[in-house]
Design brief:
Strand content: 5-15%
Bound molecules: ligand SAJ
Number of helices: 17
Shape: elongated
Order of helices and strands: HEHEHHEEHEHEEHEHHHHHEHEHEHHEHE
Structural class: alpha/beta
Radius of gyration: 24 Å
Oligomer: single chain
Number of strands: 13
Length: 445
């Protein structure tokens, strides 16, 4: 379906009508994607229903308390108690637009798991009414809307997509913890099954965003754009992780090399080697394309190799630690090793696909005495403070570059008897640590 210039032009004219009519929106999934979106829709004058699991979280939202991020704008909006949150889907029948923002994880074998999407779609279908617009924001591979979501909605509702109701895809682009880019100002892409669906979806996003909205040729191109955004990042991280393994043997400081290459003002985009690639996006999304393309008879060797390299980094990091312990006549077995950070990313509380899990598993399998500290995960930590962890550790591995670790007084390492620092995020001052007479190894430096 080609999008006519007229269809997109109309969408802009519809913008005012959609907002002025004070439409109602149901947002399914109130996590790091759905909740900021719900808050934004409230700010833009929509009546907002939230549908999610977790009674505790829903009660907090209904009481005006932000259960998730500490983003002030969202907290202030939720405090107005205008999001009607429930575990029930019946708000769908009172809504003009239904937006599905549920997780799209992979299982332990890295196979895409569409269970949450299928379940949410089925529940939405039960209450779907003529003329409504369903938008999927979850990250999905090309084909999921037409091959999975559309058939379920049509079967459960008895209606025809593109005729009785509309289906669109606008992939989420939330970057947790980002101080600059958030749901209000990140440009978006939208694809739909029909011109009318695109028109309605474009008008909706133009009514809530202070950012450009690009109409895609079809829903598949919208699905594909998000997947390649994150596959692009995964590949580039794998590139520098492979370089780290090579340059460690060549005695070249890769960190310095990347900083040098980054002085080129065009055609180079720095990425950084590390203990591993975690999170709900980068290490997950490529598998959705790998699997769907496989079913169509294409083997994504490059995407798979990038995943293999990035998945190897936790073990590579433990290998570096082992080599440094051996140089001091020690082994991993029975040695006190401190893990600095459990989260997959700095200054956020999120352990999805975190490299720390693999690092800890390998160390425990090799008989290390492992001590854990993450200021964002006090319950999962085995000690109460960074100081206590350092006191207990002969060697430490930095897995997350939380502010508390980056800003710590490095003399504490020496004063508490730490002998080896493995900097999985290359975030500590190598020269200062070496001047203290301690062993420092980063990833690629
Ligand atoms: N990482 C590296 N080297 C890098 C960059 C990241 O090892 O050069 C690691 C991180 O430590 C982390 C993982 O990769 O473990 C993912 O990091 P991320 O910065 O990509 O953070 P995410 O997972 O929050 O990714 C999100 C994505 N946003 C969406 O999917 C909507 C991604 O598209 C963004 O590019 C990314 O934020 C961002 O730029 O921060």
């Amino acid at each position: 379906m080609k999008v006519t210039k007229k269809a997109i032009k109309n969408s802009i004219n519809n913008k005012k009508k959609l907002v002025n009519n004070n439409k109602a929106v149901s947002i399914v999934g109130l996590g790091y994607v759905g909740l900021p979106l719900a808050a934004l829709c409230v700010e833009k004058g929509y009546k907002v229903y939230g549908v999610a699991k977790g009674k505790k979280k829903l009660n907090m939202i209904n009481k005006g308390i932000n259960p998730l991020t500490d983003e002030e704008r969202i907290t202030n909006t939720i405090a107005k108690k205008k999001i009607i949150a429930s575990t029930k889907f019946d708000s769908v029948k009172k809504s003009d637009i239904i937006i599905i923002c549920v997780p799209t994880p992979v299982d332990e074998f890295y196979n895409p798991d569409l269970t949450p999407i299928k379940s949410a779609t089925k529940s939405v279908g039960n209450f779907l009414k003529r003329g409504q617009l369903v938008i999927v924001e979850s990250t999905i591979n090309p084909g999921v809307c037409e091959e999975v979501v559309k058939p379920i909605l049509e079967e459960v509702s008895g209606m025809e997509a593109g005729k009785d109701f509309y289906l669109a895809h606008c992939p989420e682009r939330i970057n947790p913890g980002d101080p600059k880019w958030n749901v209000t100002n990140i440009p978006r892409v939208v694809g739909a099954l029909s011109a009318k669906g695109l028109q309605l979806a474009m008008a909706f996003y133009k009514s809530i965003l202070d950012a450009p909205v690009r109409g895609m040729k079809s829903i598949k191109e919208a699905e594909a754009s998000k997947i390649i955004e994150n596959s692009f990042r995964d590949i580039n991280i794998a590139f520098v992780n492979e370089l780290a393994k090579s340059f460690d043997k060549l005695g070249i400081d890769l960190y310095d090399v990347i900083q040098g290459a980054a002085t080129k003002p065009f055609a180079f985009m720095p990425h950084w080697p590390s203990v591993g690639v975690g999170g709900h996006c980068i290490p997950v999304d490529p598998y959705y394309l790998i699997e769907r393309a496989r079913l169509a008879g294409f083997d994504h060797k490059f995407l798979k190799l990038a995943r293999e390299i990035n998945n190897s980094m936790p073990k590579y990091t433990v290998g570096i630690l082992t080599a440094e312990l051996n140089k001091l006549g020690k082994s991993v077995f029975n040695t006190d090793i401190g893990i600095l950070g459990l989260s997959y990313k700095a200054n956020v509380a999120d352990m999805r696909e975190t490299p720390s899990k693999k690092v800890i598993k390998i160390l425990k399998e090799r008989g290390a005495k492992v001590h854990l500290f993450d200021p964002y995960f006090k319950e999962q930590s085995t000690v109460k403070s960074l100081e206590e962890l350092l006191k207990k550790s002969f060697a430490v591995v930095v897995v997350t570059n939380h502010r508390e670790f980056v800003e710590m007084d490095l003399k504490k390492l020496k004063n508490n008897g730490v002998k080896i620092i493995i900097d999985g995020k290359n975030c500590l001052d190598k020269e200062k640590i070496k001047k203290l007479g301690l062993v420092y190894k980063g990833i690629g430096r």
